[in-house]
Amino acid sequence: MRPTGITIHQSVCTSINGKGYDFYITRSGTIIPASESTDPARIHICVEGDFSRPEETLSGFKEEQFFVLQKLVLRISETFGIDPADLISHSANCPGKHFPWSELVISPKDGYH
Ligand SMILES: [Zn+2]
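# zinc ion complex -> structure
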């Protein structure tokens, strides 16, 4: 079964708990792949941070982290034929309400520069 979408988590999500993701992106922009897939239907990406706090999105690392996240989303979308705009937050509280969705300007046509 091929995944049909991407779900975004924050690292403080209680259902993550050290696993439960396919890719983990640290604050400094390092991608850590999980050794086992967690959900055949969707790719789960965990972004390090607690985006219920407004300070989180103001931290200096965010720019690199979100640059990497955007690249990863485009790559996964291309690999599995998923619409890159089909990003779904895990729940109402994950990632938190300060998660900067607007930083993710997902457009495959613009993805190559
Ligand atoms: Zn979550």
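# post-check
The radius of gyration is 13 Å.
The first helix runs from residue 54 to 58.
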